[in-house]
Each structure stands twice: as C-alpha cells, then as structure tokens.
Write a structure and sequence with these properties.
Blueprint (H helix, E strand, L loop, with lengths): L1 E9 L6 H10 L3 E10 L15 H13 L8 E4 L5 H17 L4 E4 L4 E2 L3 E2 L5 H9 L5 E2 L3 H8 L6 H14 L3 E7 L8 E8 L2 E8 L8 H16 L1 H21 L11 H5 L7 E3 L7
Parallel strand pairs: 1-2, 1-3, 3-4, 4-7, 7-8
Antiparallel strand pairs: 5-6, 8-9, 9-10, 10-11
Helix pairs in contact: 1-7, 2-3, 5-6, 7-8
C-alpha cells in the first residue's frame, strides 16, 4: 500500500511524521512524507528551533509528487496537526487530487486540537475548522475523547454516550471512527480504553493505564491503525493498534524515557502480541 502523509517533522524524538512514517514502513507500506514544519524537537519541551513550512511550499511538494504520476497508486492520505486553516486547505486539496486519481483511496484524519487536562492547544478557529470543513471529508477519524466531546457537541460519560457521540460524527462524514484515551463510568479502575466504530460493528479494547505523558502517541496510533485498516479491516486494526501502543508505551515508561521507543520496540509494531481482548460495544442502532 502507498500512503501520502502530510504532517510535521521533528529531528529529535517522535511526533508528526517522525512518529508515523517508521511504523507505516515497518508494517510494509510505502510512505510519501510531506512536511509541514521541520523542528528540532516537539513543542512539549518548551523551546524549539526550525522553520514552519509555508502552505504554498507544502502545496508545491504535493504537486511535485503528483507530477511523478503516483497519485493513482496512493491508497490513503494521512494528516495530523494543522497549524492554521491555509494548511488545512492544502491537505484537503491533496485529498481531492488523490481521490480524483484513485476513487478507492481513503483519507485518515487525526483531528489534533487538545486533550484532557491541557484543554485546547491549537490556535483559535482550528477546532471549528476541523469540525466544519475537515471532518466531513474524512473516511477515518481518530479523535481522543476530549476531541470527540467537542466534535460531537456532548460530554461522554457512559458507553451509551460514547456510541451516541461517535454516531453524530459518522453522520457528518467519516465511516470509521477510532476513539483513543476512552474513560467512561464503565472503564475498569487503573485502565484506559480504545474504541472503534465502523459499518462492520463497534468494539472496545481495554489496556492498563500507564502513569506517563508522552508526545506523539496519537500520531503513531493513527498511523498504525491506518496501516492495519488498509490490510485487515477495522476490528483487527483496533486490536493490533492497542497491542502495539501498549507495548511501546510500557517499554518507554519502564525505561523512564520521555520519547517513545518506536525503533527499539519495532518487533511490537511488526508482530504485536494481541493479549488484550476486543469486546463488542452494543448499541440499539449503529448509524
């Protein structure tokens, strides 16, 4: 499979394409990474060096890839953090161009805008832009629960709420929604969950909650889910994504490191040990 991934890049650590490209390649996919920034490190360190790439320059890179005649072969477009609306427009234009060349291609959007505890950390207007302009164009959406609440316009407290919130998103565009960092009143103590809903069903996987903060985890999760989705469908993608991310994060936590051990734990990417069961989420109606 071939994937056009339009995201940020950091030289040190793992975030954006620096978190997405290696897992995609390790899982056997060809990746065309297009960079929206090239920073020394992710902004979680409080200071960073390096340039933002102008949207017009990003668009030129996309057009250059198109000039190579590969768009009919691209199976998916992946995007993450959008610094501003003009960059979002570049991404949506790239999606439209790829889909015009290959109608079977899909768009996987990680709608990065905030999380529990930090609130929104993107510039004003980006959450609304993601909800109104980007989400309707996505085939796969991978919000965390904080982002799901905003996009759905409701607060998720129960599994029934979770299904209702996802149904609201699916009515707006994406057929498959992966929700990360799920915590409901049914989540077992000391655990965290990941849910997926698609036309094929709705599922939930539970893993131990690790006491850590890691940057780039969402970027890696979206990439790994997309990789498995393309080859094995949503249920298998959920199981393998949960297994891989727990293995990577547990090893990172055990080693006391601040950056994900993506390379060191590459065997968990290529051959995840699916020790966590996938349960069916029951709804009266899946929209």
């Amino acid at each position: 499979m071939k994937i056009l991934s339009i995201q940020s890049h950091v030289a040190f650590g793992h975030a954006g394409n620096s978190a997405a490209v290696f897992p995609l390649q390790r899982l056997g996919h060809d990746v065309y990474p297009v960079l929206t920034v090239t920073f020394s490190n992710h902004t979680g360190y409080g200071a960073t060096r390096g340039p933002l790439v102008a949207p017009a320059d990003v668009a030129e890179v996309v057009l250059g890839v198109q000039d190579r005649g590969v768009f009919p072969e691209i199976d998916a477009v992946l995007s993450g953090y959008l610094g501003a609306e003009p960059m979002g427009a570049v991404v949506l234009d790239a999606v439209a161009r790829v889909k015009a060349a290959n109608p079977r291609a899909i768009y996987c959007c990680d709608p990065v805008m905030g999380d529990v505890g930090r609130g929104f950390f993107v510039r004003e207007g980006i959450p609304e832009y993601l909800r109104e302009s980007v989400m309707p164009q996505a085939d796969i959406l991978t919000p965390n629960q904080f982002e799901l609440d905003y996009l759905a316009g409701m607060t998720v407290r129960s599994e029934a709420d979770l299904l209702e919130a996802v149904a609201r998103l699916r009515e707006r565009g994406p057929s498959t929604v992966l929700v990360t960092s799920v915590l409901t009143d049914a989540t077992p103590a000391g655990s965290i969950q990941m849910a997926c809903v698609s036309d094929e069903g709705a599922w939930l996987v539970t893993t131990p909650l690790l006491d850590m903060v890691v940057r780039g985890g969402g970027d890696a999760t979206a990439a790994i889910f997309l990789a498995h989705y393309l080859t094995d469908g949503p249920r298998v993608a959920l199981s393998r994504t949960a297994a891989t991310m727990y293995a990577v994060l547990e090893a990172t936590h055990r080693g006391g490191q601040g950056e994900m051990r993506l390379v060191a734990e590459q065997e968990s990417i290529a051959h995840p040990d699916e020790i966590f069961g996938v349960a069916n989420l029951v709804a009266t109606e899946l929209h």
